[in-house]
Amino acid sequence: MPNMVQAIKRQRQDVKKNANNVGQVSAMRSAKKRYLTAVENGQDNSAELYKVAAKAIDQAASKGLIHKNKAARDKSRLSSKLG
């Protein structure tokens, strides 16, 4: 248990940032899954769902939640299914 004011504050901030990061990664995964299920079912809105998923992937990569190469790989795999 930290006993310095700065360390206590840093712990508080880390809890908040961790919750935010986990939520954003979860939203990204959900967007990818929604797109993939739409493609499998042949829904009409798959192009729109691709844009949402790509945006979520880009946001996660820009904040360092996932590596930029993983973001590029994920977007490439999703776009190949768009066809």
UniProtKB/TrEMBL annotation:
Pfam families, per the entry: Ribosomal_S20p
A GO term, aspect molecular function: structural constituent of ribosome
Span list, region Disordered: 64-83
UniProt keyword terms in alphabetical order: Ribonucleoprotein, Ribosomal protein, RNA-binding, rRNA-binding
Cellular component, GO annotation: cytosol; small ribosomal subunit
Biological process (GO), any one: translation
InterPro entries hit by this protein: Ribosomal_bS20, Ribosomal_bS20_sf
Keyword Ribonucleoprotein found: yes
UniProt record similarity statement: Belongs to the bacterial ribosomal protein bS20 family.
Function: Binds directly to 16S ribosomal RNA.
Protein name, as recorded: Small ribosomal subunit protein bS20
Biological source species: Marinilactibacillus psychrotolerans
Gene: rpsT
